[in-house]
Amino acid sequence: MYVLQLGLIGLSIALIPLLYVKTKGNRNKFRKLAWVAVFFTFDLIMFGSFTRLTDSGLGCPDWPGCYATATPFLAHSEIRAAETALPTGPVTFTKAWIEMIHRYFAMAIGVLIITLMVLAWVKRKELKQSPWLPTGAFLLVCLQGAFGAWTVTMKLQPIIVTTHLLLALTLLGVLTWLASRQEIVVPDGTLLRWRWFALGGLVLLAMQIALGGWVSTNYAVLACTHFPKCRGDWIPPMDFAHGFKLWRALGRTAGGEIIPMDALVAIHWVHRTFAFVVIPYLTWLGVRLRRVTALRKTATLLLLMLLAQLLTGLGNILLKWPLPIAVAHTGGAAFMLLLLVMLNYHIVTAGRLARAQTRQHSPQADSLGNAGSRSV
User: Fold this and answer.
1) Which of 58, 173, 190, 325 is the most buried (most CB within 10 A)?
2) Membrane-spanning residues where (predicted)?
3) CB 335, CB 305: distance < 8 Å
4) What is the predicted pLDDT for the residue at 371?
5) What angle, 0 to 180 degrees and rounded to 10, lies between the N-to-C axes of helices 323-360 and 296-318?
């Protein structure tokens, strides 16, 4: 019964953006809904970061509800007992509400994606686009829900939490690509020369995000509290074997012992060092793409977000990981991913359209067309 109540809560939240799209004076409502889904997914990623950084991931230690109820209100006695037994533990009323709000909005996004998928299949002739991309987004959100459950049942195991974050960012990328498909792109064959450079930037950013997720889920941000050196050295003592052992409990080695500080230093140092690869590359890419009129706005935003990301990263280190800056750092990474997906889509699509136009107007195509008209 409580699962049905949870579903109704998620549906009620989803009705707000759905009604907004329905009543908005916009002919292409599918396009509007796709961008709304992107917006809500981005917000959920930031709220998920807030949930993790406030240690609220186990605010309700079961799934999908809270002590087998739909809201913390109904689990009042269980939460009170857990908080009384361990006042500084993972279960409090505040943490329970943070965790459940995160789940409510995740269900609402699921409803939005289901709506997109249904519309894509029903209006596939009108949209003139394959409905398999929104179908893939639906499958992805189902997988994301499974990892959300495992995050709780496996007690915040770092590899599960990191994968949960990466799947959320992948979903954001897929929805951004889907929304970008609804935009008008002017053919431009010259953009294809940037195709592999833009893809390379996306890959490098994805790798850096994965390393950053590993830092966050292992709580290794404060393993190095100075910059540019780490613990007084350019290359401090590090334990890569324990630090990058993927399958282990939070704060433990694979053997169950307390994870050594040198392992946390290794996790932090690799993420910090790889930034010296990613930042120069994306800076170069953004500066070059700003010269292309059609890409100037997106490339400029990428450069601004890159600067903001550098500042929030330094702020996390020098200011001892304050919550607002830590959440902003996650949001900045997600927004940079969104921008790079948009750039990749525009470059690939503009190039393909230009090639298609070239083939249509080639002499061979003209001769075939003339021969066909004569035969008729």
Assistant:
1) 173
2) 6-21, 33-53, 101-120, 132-153, 159-180, 192-211, 269-287, 299-319, 325-345
3) yes
4) 38
5) 160
